[in-house]
Amino acid sequence: CGVKIEDMQAPCNYTAGLFVTEFFIYKYGFDGFNRLINEQSGSTFAEVFKLATGDDLSSFYALANQEIQLRGW
């Protein structure tokens, strides 16, 4: 698809979503995933992400974009 994960459109975003979920669990574990899907304090996804992981969403996207390029997507 040749674009950053956060800019992908259908159908690429569906395939990338599988990768992002795998990468997220690799980085934060299942406990982190559970915190992410259950966090209700933030008003934006970026705030929820920060509360659940302690990391900025933009930093996560940057790491995920590097990894997806290494995999040849």
Note down, in words, how this protein is organized:
- The protein is mainly alpha-helical.
- The protein is 68% helix and 0% strand.
- It is built from 3 helices and no strands.
- The chain has helices spanning 12-38, 45-53, 57-70.
- Helix 1 crosses helix 3 (57-70).
- It is globular and about 35 Å long.
- The N and C termini lie close together (7 Å).
List keywords for this structure.
single chain; 73 residues; mainly alpha; 3 helices; 0% strand
Radius of gyration: 12 Å
> Separation of termini?
7 Å
Helix/strand-derived class? mainly alpha
Largest sheet: none
Describe the SSE topology:
Elements: H1 12-38, H2 45-53, H3 57-70
Helix pairs in contact: 1-2, 1-3
Q: How would you sum up this structure in a few lines?
A:
Helix content is 68%, strand content 0%. By secondary structure, the chain is mainly alpha-helical.
